[in-house]
Amino acid sequence: MERQTTPPTDDPLGGGREPPPPPRPPRGPGLDPTALFVLLDGLRRVVPGELQGQLTNLIREFLLTLRSLIDWYLERLDRPRREPRVEDIPID
């Protein structure tokens, strides 16, 4: 059986084009908020008209709280580290 050395004509990469970029590496063990935002948006669309305003306000408050937490964390990262207070204890 003979191996083909040129790509077949129906090959999407034939014709000298570059291969597609490699897939993105999986994210670390951190939290991926994408699913949460999709869920919140889906809830907002499914909720009856009488509750949409209340749910929209709830989502707004959640996002403002999340933004406040991010701001607090960034401020904490920007501060210089405090040196631990060390006290010399004489040993007799």
Walk me through what this model shows.
The chain has 92 residues and is an all-alpha fold. The protein has two helices and no strands. The chain has helices spanning 34-46, 49-78. The longest helix is centred in the C-terminal third of the chain and has 30 residues, at 49-78. The radius of gyration is 28 Å and the shape is flat. The mean pLDDT is 78.
Order of helices and strands: HH
Backbone CA Rg: 28 Å
User: Roughly what fraction of the amino acids lie in strands?
Assistant: under 5%
Average predicted confidence as pLDDT: 78
Morphology: flat
Q: Count of DSSP E strands?
A: 0
Could you list the spans in which at least 5 consecutive residues all have pLDDT below 50?
Answer: none
Label this structure with key terms.
mainly alpha, flat
What's the arrangement of secondary structure elements?
Elements: H1 34-46, H2 49-78
Helix pairs in contact: 1-2
Question: Summarize this, please?
Answer:
The chain is mostly helical. The chain is built from 2 helices and no strands.
